[in-house]
Amino acid sequence: SLQTQLSEKPSRIVPVDRIVAVVNDDVITQNELAERVDLVTRQLQRQGATLPPADALTRQILERMINDRVQLQVAKEDGIKVDDLTLDRTLERIAQENHLSMADFRKTLEHDGINYNRFRDDIRNEITIARLREKEVDNTIVVTDAEVETELARESHDASANEEYELSHILVAVPPQATPDQIEAKRRRAIDALAELRRGANFAQIA
What we know:
Mean pLDDT: 80
Order of helices and strands: HEEHHHHHHHH
Strand order of the largest sheet: 1-2
Largest sheet: 2 strands, antiparallel
Structural class: mainly alpha
Shape: globular
Number of helices: 9
Distance between the termini: 62 Å
Strand content: under 5%
Helix content: 55-70%
């Protein structure tokens, strides 16, 4: 009977992964978001940084994931790809910067609860997005001969100076197909970050 069937204990329970965002033809699931939030939380804790409220952190990470998905889709449409050789060399450089062999680097990631294959995919995506941004900059920035000559003259004039500068920047990325609301949200974020810095906030923490 139906009552008997309802009372019987199911032999197998299959968890359902909820969709939290739809990005064109792609989706971001609750499990993906939770995994990324956990990773970022552990990274901030290792750095000794103050954690923002959980809901604010989750919202920021979801926005970042959406922006990344949009940019990856644009990169795919533009034919931007990262081959395995480039990816492997980048991973080797990261390991070297941490004074680790590739084997030890992989063990360190796994010890920190980071799946190596997922990490590898994340690095591929980062390189892809960086190439997309470089392409966009190359297509939009035009430097005239007069500007080059002016800069060379200025550098020549300042050549005797002993001043050195350490420069850093904070990039608030705007997706190529951003809506007016998304652009306004990014503008407000940039203004808020600038206000915090002017009040003396730590630059790395704001970044």
